[in-house]
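[job 4417] fold queue: 2 targets
>>> target A
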Amino acid sequence: MDWGYSIRNLEGGDAVKFVDLARRMPRGMPLIVAVFSSLTACSQDAEQFVEPAPLVTSDPGLQAAMLEEEDARGSGMSGTTSLREGLIATEPELQRLAVRAIGRLEDPELIPLTFPLLFSDDEMVRAEAVNALGQAARGELGDDVAEVLFEYLARELQEGPTVRGTIGRTLGRLRYADAARFRRAQETLIGLTRDGDVDAPFVAMIGAVMGLESMARGTGRDRMSEASIERLRELTTLGRTADDARVRRVAMMALSTIGEVDSDVLGSGVRDPDPDVRRLAVMLIGRGTAGEGPPDLLIDALEDSFPRVRAEAVRAYAARVPGVQECPLLLSASRDDDLHVALVALDLLQQPCENRATQDEFLSGLAFGLENAGRLDWHRGAHALVALAVVSPDVAATLVDGALRSTNPFVRMYAARAAARTGSTEVLEALAGDPALNVRTVALQGLFDLVGHDSDGVLTAQLRQNDPQLLLTVANLLEGTPDPAAAVGPLVAALARVSEARQETSRDPRMALLERISETGGVEQVAELEPYLNDYDPVVAARVAEILTDWTGELRTARPVPLAAQALPSAEDLERLAGTRVVLEMARGGEIEIRLLVADAPINAARFERLAASGYFDGLTFHRVVTNFVVQGGSPGANEYSGAPEYTRDEVGLVSHSRGTVGTSTRGRDTGDGQIFINLVDNFRLDHEYTVFGQVVSGMDVVDRVAEGDVIVRATVVAQ
């Protein structure tokens, strides 16, 4: 049988070794020894395949069937039949798609299926097979998968820098129970970081450094060897060109996690030509001992030409300067031309300065006139108002009324935050009736923080609304209510009303409502909850079964009736989308051009294109902006819990969350609701947790200027 694999470097003894490793995999995994046995019998002159264009295969029917099984997480009627067929296809692209999908199922029982693909002639197939091993071992089996990779790496040292880099990343994110294997993994990664020191590509080295960073983040300082730390220190000064800047950045990230940075590393870092190396070095300076005074290294950083470096320098300065001495710098930084630098400084002014009169006058000057602030120029005043509410509540109270009259709901949200800090329950009760439900949410949280369950009457009244975030907040705040009888009826009614819409993405508020119903209700509500045993959401149905069993003492069984699966993009759709870009026109000015990564995240890329083409994003906002992290938007309710009705599943893989990549916002596995985020910096801690489906190819300067509440005027799809 022609399996389509090369055994050029897999002699009989190596095949036996891998079969033996497979036999020792725990939990009685189904083995595919016959596959390995056949490898030793295949022709050593196996056909070499040229990789076709992304997601264009000779068998679109099999390709579509594999996508369906991946989307169903292997739980559909066909299980993994098509994926297994793809694994033994003679076409590398089909093999790559199949083994990638097997990994995304995150099922340890499927680990042996990936082994033959480790010996493909195609480097990307081998890389995906390595990554699939790591994904299938998520949370367990790290030691066993590491043992496979140790043995396999000896073969790959002769070729395939991409594969070696993937091995490095995978070894770094595994979880180890055996100390000896953990030490060996570190030693292996250190060795791989020397791959590329001279003239080889840096891809293997970068993967290894990312592995060390992931390992440090997952285990902490105590388990990292001195050799690892010393090598990371060396790598922070590797070269001084754009080609190896990424190595320096990741090494600095790892050291920041471990907390092992000496003055030489910091001195080199703050003078690095790469702005993000400088930013990370500055961040580490800020973690020094408070009270020592600002190191001289911060002086240049405070005037860096890149705002994200200046923003971090302001934080670091404030962390290193004791008490009121930092105020002159913060007052100056609050006038920075870059909005985000200014907002960092204003938020840090939520502490008394030595010259309170100057501080009050400055903050009051910014907060005055919020009533008439435009949609693009309210941020400094709103942040100043909250800072003033902390340091001078009486002064802030005179300015809150103006903010309450603003037509901008974001301004009124900040007015609610200020009122909470000044202790104004009267203002918060008034804002509980605000026409903008996000304003109500902030006001209700503030009111509860001040008066606790004395606010239950106001909270219960909000259960007549439909906003997911508002309902979830209210349900959580009603925990432990002293009057359950008054709450249970509105809770049940809210659950019924929200459930009628049959939206998958309403799971979070529905589950929160169920938790309160389980606490406040009893046998009197059995009849009202019984229909949910057949709910369209299996998670909700399972929870209802638990509640009814607890209430009645009789075992109740969930029999969910799921919604029809969403149509998946066809092979023709994906071929059409290759090279497609989506352009976001921003009200603040400029455009953000996003290239779709269809080959890596076909379902998420196709959904984003479909929503953009339908006008879904037109007029929506970026409601969440975290300096030096991400901007997030695309919510009809401008909040974390309001999105499109259907979930999309995750398509996590080898694409990292580098600066400028575009990801799918989720609240747990497979809960994409149409919201997106753009990485402002390298956020590798998000790798293998959130899907990357796009890359900003033009307009990253526009992304850097995005502020909370900024409007997407329109989204336009531009075909290749």
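>>> target B
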Amino acid sequence: MSLGSNARALREQLAPFLDLKGYGREDLGKDLVSALTVTFMTIPQGVAYAIIAGLPPAMGLYASCVPTIVGALFRSSNHVVAGPTNALSLLVGTTGAAAAGLDPVSTVLLLSFLVGAMQVTAGVLRLGLLVDWISTPVVIGYITGAGILIGVGQLPSLTETAGAEGNLFEKLWGWSQHLDETNGWALLVGAIVAGSIVGLRRLDKRVPGPMVALTLATLASWLLDFEALGLRRIEDLAPVPASLPPLTLPDGEAWSFDRWLSLLPLAGAVTVLSLVESSSVARAIAARTRQRLDVNTEFSGQGLANVAAAFFGGYPVSGSLSRSALNHQSGARTRLAGVMNGLLLIPLLLFMGPAIDFAPIAALAGLLLVVAADLVDVERILQIVKARPSDAFAFGVTVLGTWILRLDQAIYVGVAVSLVLFLRRARMLTVHQIVFEPDGRVRELTLDDPDAEYLECANVKVLNVEGQLFFGAAGELQQALDEVMRDPAVRAVILRLRRAKGLDVTTIGVLEEAAGQLAAEGRHLFLVGLQDQAQTLLERTGAAELIGTDHVFPTTLRWFQAADLAMAEALEHLGDHDCGDACPLARHLAVRDITPPLDAASSG
């Protein structure tokens, strides 16, 4: 690599915001509209998530200002919005167990700094591939368990009764002992807020339901004096000051070596969850926008956002799925939409702080119950349970860990399960392109082999995949598919999986994502040479139907027969895309005596 290329790569990792060539008035308008839309969601979420973390509500808003700006500037994704998230806030809430009598605010500021330092270090050392070692069932298991914990944790606020500390079962038991003291007005307010959010979402997803419901509940609290009805308000927890995000530092005692040492296990768990969350969000959106991501830059950018949280009154942040998705859906063009989102929130804090104080705690409980329900993805859970027994085991162990252990310990249990499964099945995944000699012979070449140019079909790429096709190989498979799909001339991709084993729900997700992206562009993905176990797994998880049953070819006794049938099918689907009369693929099928339809014989 040349010196200029090295300098460009270093600039892209350290300062990705410098790449804004051609930014115009139309881009500015789209980014501003998106930023305004996301800001309306940020306010209620920031307050609610800080309550989940057991922190003053203002810290959730502070964590959504400067950290959001820094994250938008320094990560590689153009659409991910950094800030507090539900699952991460619940994990941060375990900080109290490590604080040992110290001020929890000061302690959580130090936690933010430690998390940021770890994430920046991981990015500089280019450890991005480490997130591939944590399987989807473990991540979904943690999020599911956290969602149920969040819901159970809000029950005392919903009924305005006493709660209890401890694990999930202890909290449920403690809450149930005071049900006869339930405040009916609080229950009604929470139910109305939750119902309004769900109803507005079904009516029109573009309506900021949480903001609308919380605003109306706050107005009602102010006009009707909810406090006289026994309903607590945010000011009863900690008033939100009308001020800019403060410059903050952990106090002197929190900076002691002993305090660092006591927080390191929790900081490691927060670092892992934050990176997995933000990387997953970035990849999901990049799959739609076709933006090329640098996972190491994602790590560094997320780390700098957490360092900013430590010095501007926030707490550990991640990439928000809901706000990032809304940012993309609202038409954001560049990373400046995230910058504007953070900037817009700063002046709002000067005027809205006292108004937020009137929000009823029961209304926030209703909002958080909807958040908790959203975290329990029944469709993904069923897919995991129906897949491999090891996937179901990893999911179950992680969920159970969140219910009976401290959340930072549950994270490590999930990571340990992932590593055990990785070590059991770890093997290198190899992906080669299959090309065809004029005499009908088949050759395997690497994807970047220059010889392939003269032997390959311009419109159909045939890839041979070998090795253990499990969650640890998902990144390699995704990278190989992205490289081929990046060429707009490729109209069909054929994956030959005869010598690939260990297909699981994580790699099925990669295949589903690729098939969906290709289908949206009028292109096709074919899977051939599937063994019985893989074929059954695709059918049980519903992936075969999503990809297309006519695009899935099981293995046959005759060598290469399944691939031949898929190639003939691919040529039939090409339509007007013609790469010449001497298509190597068409020649190969003629030699093999498998003739595609006459109108596609010259395509390929």
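[job 4417] complete. Note on B: Residues 1-6, 595-604 have pLDDT under 50 and may be disordered.
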